[in-house]
Design brief:
single chain, 492 residues, alpha/beta, 4-stranded antiparallel β-sheet, 13 helices, 10% strand
Length: 492
């Protein structure tokens, strides 16, 4: 579901997002409008089908839908069931709602996948609420193991594709560098040749004017006219000298005409240079395409280790189920206890992997600045404390990015996401890296909406595709849209 609009209060200004895409920033200078937008979204989402007043709107499968209405609930429920997510966990993914433990639970569910999350939580994958994972029938476990094996095989092939893509990307980059060098060399040669033709044409024009002036002087002076070089009277030599000058003048005129035609020919780029430039552009586009494809494959391969661990857990579960069926009552009790132990181990390992993903993202966003203090900051944040400060802000930014990467990697079709906290909360050294990370995220999610102070936007305007800000008029508040990025800037 994609956000189409947000509304501040019941009669406040409306943020129209229907035509926006990419990384979209709401430029806030401490005004309350952004907070009212978020409060309206949180309130509408918490209505659970009971909302009747106007509010945030999403583009559903059948058209615009108000968040919190029955129509919205009908579209949300299949998404929650498909990924075994709780409602508050979807809010954490969509607009950063809920506490830290909700974010971590959502990350664990996405990392395990629907079947794994259903087993751990009970329900959603054939497990009774509050029951053990060993209440699953043997056939169900075998089917889950087959699915897990297929997932491991698919990710293994993706890993092989990564190596092939790396080789292709290296070759394409080499070819692109050569083509770019050929195009640059051709451009320099063309410019030099064009400048040479222009210079020679000017020289011939000057010489032609000089000779024409001498001929005119001789015609006016006749035989008594002076020589153009020594100053003596020409006398009987006037005729031959004049003939020599005229022949030289005609030759200069002919050569000048040739250089003029040559200069005119060189006004446009030669065909071979245009072909070289087209090849360089095509190879650059190929390099970009291969780089994006490689990034997608790498994102898929990230889950290979988790998928392998999940397969091992399911195979162990299937073996214990077989042992339980052959062990009578005592075997059943022992198997149940072992099942609870295995499930606890799976939960612990999943939490560790989510924490490791967040740690890696924090290191990337801070350039290693929080490498030593991360355990303490993370423990306080995960326990419900430490909500303020630049270090916690970058931790929350990293956690949201990890959540979204896990969601897209799990196949969740996220059409829009919202980062509620302003980027100015981050440490000044971390802001540009955070905006660059959000811009990369917008390649996988059509609309990424974030709040940013004017100084943050002014520092890196090239990363934002659209900017919004609240403006007052005689008719009340309204929202102004400004196009950003590397193109022209305009307001509507």
């Amino acid at each position: 579901m994609r956000l189409a609009s947000l509304q501040a209060g019941s009669r406040g200004p409306v943020l129209d997002l229907r035509d926006s895409r990419g990384l979209v920033g709401f430029v806030s200078e401490g005004d309350p409008v952004w907070g009212e937008f978020l409060e309206g979204l949180r309130t509408a989402f918490a209505s659970r089908g009971r909302r009747s007043a106007p509010g945030p709107v999403v583009e559903g499968t059948d058209g615009p839908v108000i968040v919190g209405t029955d129509a919205f609930e009908a579209q949300l429920e299949p998404v929650l069931e498909a990924h075994v997510l709780r409602r508050e966990e979807y809010a954490a993914i969509w607009f950063g709602g809920g506490a830290a433990r909700t974010w971590l639970a959502a990350g664990g569910a996405l990392l395990l996948g629907p079947a794994g999350a259903g087993e751990v939580r009970g329900g959603g994958s054939g497990v009774a609420e509050g029951g053990s994972a060993y209440d699953l029938p043997g056939a169900r476990v075998a089917r889950l193991a087959r699915d897990a094996r297929n997932e491991v095989d698919r990710l293994t092939k993706s890993q092989e594709e990564v190596e092939g893509l790396k080789a292709r990307l290296r070759e394409a980059r080499e070819e692109a560098a050569i083509a770019r060098g050929d195009a640059e060399a051709g451009t320099m040669a063309w410019v030099r040749e064009r400048q040479d033709a222009e210079t020679r044409l000017l020289l011939y024009r000057d010489r032609e004017r000089e000779l024409r002036g001498k001929l005119k002087s001789m015609d006016e002076g006749g035989e008594d006219g002076p020589c153009g070089r020594c100053g003596r009277e020409l006398g009987d030599l006037a005729g031959p000298v004049r003939e020599v000058l005229r022949e030289e003048w005609e030759s200069v005129v002919q050569d000048g005409r040739w250089w003029r035609r040559r200069r005119d020919q060189l006004e446009g780029k030669p065909d071979d240079l245009q072909a070289a430039e087209r090849r360089a552009v095509a190879l650059a586009a190929e390099v970009d395409g291969l780089a994006e494809e490689l990034a997608r494959c790498k994102a898929q391969v990230v889950g290979l280790e988790a998928a392998a661990r999940r397969l091992d857990d399911l195979l162990e579960l299937a073996a214990r189920l077989r042992g339980r069926r052959g062990g009578g009552v005592g075997g059943r009790a022992e198997g149940g206890a072992a099942g609870e132990e295995g499930r606890a181990r799976l939960v612990s390992e999943t939490r560790r992997r989510v924490r490791a993903r967040i740690h890696g993202e924090v290191v990337a966003l801070t350039g290693g600045r929080l490498l030593g203090s991360f355990p303490e900051i993370f423990a306080a944040w995960a326990g419900g404390g430490g909500r303020g400060g630049a270090d916690v802000a970058v931790l929350e930014m990293a956690a949201r990015i990890v959540l979204l990467e896990l969601a897209t990697g799990a196949g969740a079709k996220l059409e829009s996401i919202v980062f509620p906290e302003g980027l100015e909360r981050l440490h000044p050294q971390d802001r540009s890296r955070a905006v660059a990370a959000l811009a990369r995220l917008s390649r996988r999610i059509p609309l990424v909406l974030v709040c940013a102070a004017p100084q943050v936007v002014a520092a890196v305007p090239e990363y934002f595709d659209f900017l919004y800000r609240a403006g007052g008029t005689g008719d009340g508040d309204r929202i102004l849209r400004q196009r950003s990025g590397l193109g022209a800037v305009w307001l509507t």
